[in-house]
Task: structure prediction
Amino acid sequence: MMSPFDSGSGQPGLGQLWREAPQRLQRKPWIVVAVLAAVVALGFVAFRSTGSSGPVPNQGPIAALTVTTTPLMQREMRTTISGVGSIVAWQELPIGAESPGLRVVEVLADEGDDVKAGQVLARLDSRVLGAQLRAQDARVAEARANVVVADNNLKRAQDLVSRGVVSGATLDDRKSAADTASARLAQALASRDELASRVAQTNIVAPAAGHISKRAVLLGDVVASGTEAFRLIRDNKLELNAQISETDLGAIAPGQEARVLHEGTVPVTGTVRLIAPIVDAKSRLGTVHISLPQDSGLRVGMYARAEITLANKPVATLPESAVIWRDERATVFVVGADGVIAERAVEVGGRQGNFVEIRKGLNANEPVVSSGGGFLHDGDRVRVNNAGIDAQAGAPKAP
Result:
């Protein structure tokens, strides 16, 4: 077994030198002196490392910063609910061609035009249908003439029967002829009305007043039945479909004012028209329809933000300096009883002055680092110094 004094490296260690000391003392006395000096030095080092002071206790992390803390404070705050969404038409009406296979001969409206209800937007070729209508008018005139002849024959037959000149069978024949003539006239009139409607359909008209947002036909196009020719924003009304968190929907009601902001245009004031009855199961967002004024300067498809301001109410707040944003998440630092801080994610609400609403993530009276959190990390130890903080004039009370 190798002695602790043996080096194990092929060179003589302290043990070997000690065993060979008598021989070496005779040959080289200075070697013994060197060995004894090394033993004394090792003993002194061992004594210092295992001295009477005992092992050094684990002191833990050393406090690096002195901080001030604050609990949640109740403040009267005008809460603002925010949401984003797209500008859409209140009602966007597709206007199509009803008569199939006809050519466009005139386009009277274009994108961006304001039109009235019943205004002609485009005309289709109606020459064939017009000729058919005129021919049907002639058939109607002929049927009317036949009705007159049949009625006169019926009257004469009735007179002759009363005098006994003709039989009752002749009277029945005259009645049947009169009824047939009346039926043929009704049929001719119905056919004429159908043709007149088809001729009218060669004019593509606006079903309501509004703003032309799209034109899909050109001069010379041959349209099929149902082909969309124009798209109309009814009454030129736009609205913002703002996506609002499900937790805020209960505080919104139709008729409330909403401030709508879009980069590149001045802010406008809209009105909440409707709150959608369904919340998206994945995003947990509901749609709030906000009507916009006609002179808003906004256009369909734009992306805008809505701010709905509610009445003042007491809410839990922290100084804005206490909230740190990391990885797009609001974070605060809570100081434990041992001075070690814990990072805590919170949900923030509205802002007013230098204070921000805290909706979730903190309990009442938990001490939160009020400033300087950007230099801290989870698990750091700090010193708390709140001297003079409670004496601030007008400081709100903790909940």
